[in-house]
UniProtKB/TrEMBL annotation:
Its EC number is 3.4.11.2. NCBIfam families: pepN_strep_liv. This is Aminopeptidase N. Residues 261-472 form the Peptidase M1 membrane alanine aminopeptidase domain. InterPro entries: Aminopeptidase_N-like_N, Aminopeptidase_N-like_N_sf, ERAP1-like_C_dom, Pept_M1_aminopeptidase, Peptidase_M1, Peptidase_M1_aminopeptidases, Peptidase_M1_dom, Peptidase_M4/M1_CTD_sf. PANTHER family: PROTEASE M1 ZINC METALLOPROTEASE, PUROMYCIN-SENSITIVE AMINOPEPTIDASE-RELATED. Keywords: Aminopeptidase, Hydrolase, Metal-binding, Metalloprotease, Protease, Signal, Zinc.
């Protein structure tokens, strides 16, 4: 359900009131389904305290594992049933307070009757068997195709711990965990603490014993077991280890991991003023992972694909590695040490980690331009998301664990982080830091709410932040700001910042920004004056600029303090369009590039004209972070060209010019590995002409070379993917040959992508059948890979052949598929074709399919907007 901002706030307040009053009433029976409602969770936590778990697992490497969980807890009353979460297990025995009872079990949770419970301390013992998960949740199992070794690890967020053991699977029932794990003798086991004992159990197994943890929410607990490769480093304050599968160990750069980890732990210890609490810091690269990384206490997991390299790491890859390490490390304090009470607080965990991770990257590593990268990557995604009709407040109600991830998106991560960044500017850096420190000290090993966090900041600032909280956290939408000024006699005689909302999201906000004016001098854009301003309302006078020189360009969010989309005045827009190369400051240059791209998306700057700016300015770009950003925009521009289906003299020439620019710059960048690989990757990504594809094939077989560039395995797969995408002669055979060359799990995935992308109706039909078969034996990670490659923008006609089918299947798949499955499907396979007819088709589907889950319905509505945006860009072309 889409909520207006005031209604969202009212609902949040009403929900909180209802939950407080619910604690006083007898709990209603829990719904018989796989999810836990907030009401049921809070009713349960009102009755329970002092939770401890003894978890004993036996993991053999086969498809099932066994376990015994001993739960001890204090119960406030024994007047009504109590549920314990355990998913799809075969229960062998259930003992409650020393008495064996027959399990009352529905495959999702066990119900304990009052007659078996006592007021005060209770002990429940559950012995069970369960299949390993293969979808990345619970206790996941993967067989390495290279050497057939088996690897397992856990992922419990938001509520998947009950896919491994019996527990109260909700964040506000923190507990301690005592763990023993029996595994094959050549395996290692990793958990939140470092093992205290490893002993032989028979000839072929060992039992690993771990110390009792400090109090943690279940989703922060980790167990990983398998024949992992281990690297260790004890040079810092805390011992560090890194783990990976043995078959990919050569692709890991442990020295880089330990360098950034050591720097981050030192930075956060000092910044927070609270020492790291989990004694050792382990990081594991794991296969088939659903997300980028996960902040399990003392044992952080990372998706392999983003952090394995078959060549020397580029600067961008190192920057990404450092940033993700810092993000997950920030969670060790904000998320693990102090944890939200319910999933409506998840945004604050992620926003704070995104903010602090970027701050740590900028201040504790060599990547001093981390905030520029944040602007180009995270913040722009947040602006785009927050401009949609389907946007949502940062803080939203979460009625059950089923909807915990419905709103995990760029609003959660990057708008939230941007909001915290501008709050830091508003309050002052020292005040903000003091408030954070006080919060962590007061609530350590406890659960806290947004009000607790904002209250700590407000106390430090001696300011009531309730109005700020309402504006920024409970009301959706991004404001636009523009400079409105006039000049007389070469001087500014009036200047205001004009702030606007939209008809749907009209809220105006308070914010501190810098307003800067620039003059052109000798072909360079030179800063004339910079004025900090707190604006609030529709118009705010900027008296500090009155009397200064009439500018050639004004930027009302200089150095990116605030969260607002900047609309350039006409004079500034023309200056940016014509003089980008004369802007010395790379962050300002990035912002001006973004303003031009916003013009394309809004239909105000024809794509033709944008590409002219690209060809004029991009070849000479010397800032690597900015070049990474703009080449990404160029790739998206090529995608729009393909989606629009425009085939005329301009489009044909633009494709040739784009290939020529990327190739020439790759050749010219010899000796600068970062730039050469970036330009060549752009060449591979945008090449579609027969001449360009022939050149790619020649590079692949070695008959053509880019002097200085090594064509590693990843680049080989990129080229093979491109050749198959455009049906280059012999491309299908290249996939088969490369699979023999690369038998790794990554190679299997790349082969699936290169096959699914082929513009062949039979191939499309076969793969569409596979990815829509909810019983397929193909691991979900491979299903998701195929989904993402099935219909690329230029394959409009092929996409249309199954468009009606894919739309028609959406309600059934939404109902029967898992949350992670339908998220992948709706992000990849809802069809749009950049025509008025396809927009109408999607609008009709949205009007009819009103019973979809919230996340899937949002994806459908977003697809309508995406199709409309493409049509807007198409209609704005000046050379059709």
């Amino acid at each position: 359900m889409k909520l207006t901002a005031p209604r969202a706030l009212a609902l949040a307040i009403a929900s909180a009131f209802a939950l407080h009053t619910a604690h006083a009433a007898a709990p209603a029976p829990r719904a018989q389904n796989a999810y836990l409602s907030q009401a049921d969770a809070f009713a349960r936590s009102a009755r329970i305290a002092n939770v401890d778990y003894l978890v004993d697992l036996t993991i053999t490497g086969k498809e099932t594992f066994s376990g015994t969980t001993t739960l001890t807890f204090n119960l406030k009353d024994a007047s009504s049933p109590l549920t314990i979460d355990l998913d799809k297990a075969t229960i062998k025995t259930l003992t409650v307070n020393g008495k064996e009872v027959k399990p009352e079990y529905n495959n999702w949770f066990i119900t304990l009757q009052p007659k078996d419970l006592v007021k005060g301390k209770n002990t429940v013992v559950v012995s069970y068997d369960r299949p390993h998960s293969t979808n990345g949740e619970g206790l996941h199992r993967m067989v390495d195709p290279v050497d057939k070794r088996v690897y397992t690890y856990t992922h419990f967020e938001p509520a998947a711990a009950h896919q491994m053991f019996a527990l109260f699977d909700q964040p506000d029932l923190k507990g301690t965990y005592s763990l023993t794990v029996t595994v094959p003798k050549d395996w290692v086991v990793v958990s939140t603490g470092r093992e205290t004992k490893v002993e032989d159990v028979g000839a072929d197994s060992k039992r690993w014993t771990f110390p009792t943890t400090k109090k943690l929410s279940a989703y922060n607990f980790e167990v990983a077991a398998g024949p992992y490769q281990v690297w260790e480093d004890t040079s810092g304050k805390y011992p560090m280890r890194l783990f990976s599968r043995q078959s990919v160990a050569s692709q890991i750069k442990p020295q880089e991991w330990f360098r950034y980890t050591k720097a981050g732990l030192a930075f956060f210890d000092e910044y927070f003023g609270v020492p790291y609490q989990f004694n050792k810091y382990d990081q594991l690269l794991v296969p088939d992972f659903l997300y980028g990384a996960m902040e399990n206490a003392g044992a952080v997991t990372f998706a392999e694909g983003g952090f394995m390299f078959r060549a020397e790491m580029t600067t961008a890859q190192k920057h990404n590695l450092a940033g993700v390490i810092m993000h997950e490390m920030a969670h060790q304090w904000f998320g693990d040490l102090v944890t939200m009470k319910w999933w409506n607080g998840l945004w604050l965990n992620e926003s704070f980690a995104s903010f602090m991770g970027t701050l740590a990257t900028a201040e504790a590593t060599e990547f001093k331009d981390a905030w520029q990268a944040f602007y180009s990557q995270g913040k722009q995604a947040a602006y785009a998301q927050d401009s949609r009709a389907t946007t949502h407040p940062i803080e939203v109600p979460v009625p059950s664990s089923q909807s915990a991830f419905d709103n995990i998106d760029a609003i959660t991560y990057s708008k939230g982080a941007s909001t915290l960044k501008q709050l830091r500017h508003l309050l002052g850096e020292d005040v903000f830091r003091k408030g954070v420190h006080n919060y962590l000290v007061k609530y350590q090993f406890k659960n806290a709410t947004l009000q607790d966090f904002i209250g700590s900041l407000g106390e430090a600032a001696h300011r009531d932040l309730s109005a700020w909280t309402k504006q920024w956290l409970y009301e959706p939408g991004v404001n636009t700001i523009a400079a409105n000024y006039s000049c007389k006699g070469g001087k500014i005689d009036s200047f205001t910042i004009d702030q606007r909302g939209t008809a749907k999201f009209p809220t105006l906000r308070e914010q501190r920004v810098q307003v800067a004016s620039f003059k052109m001098k000798d072909g360079q854009l030179v800063l004339d004056k910079n004025v900090p301003v707190i604006y609030n309302g529709a118009k705010t006078a900027v008296k500090g600029l009155v009397g200064s020189a009439c500018p050639d360009l004004v930027y009302p969010n200089y150095q990116d303090w605030g969260f607002a989309k900047v609309v350039l005045d006409q004079r500034s827009f023309e200056t940016a369009r014509n003089h980008l190369a004369g802007v010395e400051d790379p962050l300002l240059r990035a912002m001006l590039w973004q303003s031009l791209w916003d013009g394309v998306r809004d239909g105000k700057l024809p794509l033709n004209d944008y590409m002219a700016v690209v060809f004029k300015n991009l070849p000479g770009e010397k800032d690597y972070t900015l070049l990474t950003d703009v080449t990404g925009k160029v790739a998206r521009a090529k995608g729009l060209m393909d989606a629009m289906g425009v085939d005329n003299a301009w489009s044909r020439q633009t494709r040739k010019d784009l290939e020529a620019m990327a190739w020439d710059r790759a050749v010219a960048a010899k000796g600068n590995d970062n730039f050469q690989r970036l330009w060549f990757n752009l060449y591979v990504g945008v090449t579609s002409t027969p001449e360009g594809l022939a050149r790619l094939a020649a590079v692949l077989d070695g008959s053509a070379k880019v002097d200085g560039l090594t064509i590693n395995q990843d680049l080989r797969w990129n080229i093979i993917y491109a050749l198959n995408r455009y049906n280059y002669a012999g491309a299908a055979e290249l996939v088969k040959a490369e699979q023999e060359r690369d038998k790794s799990d990554a190679g299997q995935a790349r082969a699936i992508a290169a096959t699914a992308v082929r513009p062949d109706p039979a191939v499309k039909a076969e793969w569409l059948g596979t990815v829509t078969d909810l019983q397929t034996k193909l691991p979900f990670s491979k299903v998701r890979t195929a989904m993402g490659s099935l219909y690329t923008p230029e394959q409009r006609e092929l996409s249309e052949k199954t468009a009606e089918q894919r739309l028609a299947q959406l309600p059934e798949l939404d109902k029967k598929g898992s949350t992670v499955y339908i998220r992948a499907y709706s992000n990849s396979l809802i069809p749009y074709a950049c025509t008025a007819a396809s927009v109408k088709r999607l609008e009709d589907a949205a009007a009819k399919m009103k019973d979809l889950s919230p996340a899937t319905r949002r994806a459908l509505l977003d697809s309508v907007e995406d199709d409309q945006l493409c049509l807007t860009v198409k209609n704005a072309l000046t050379a059709k």
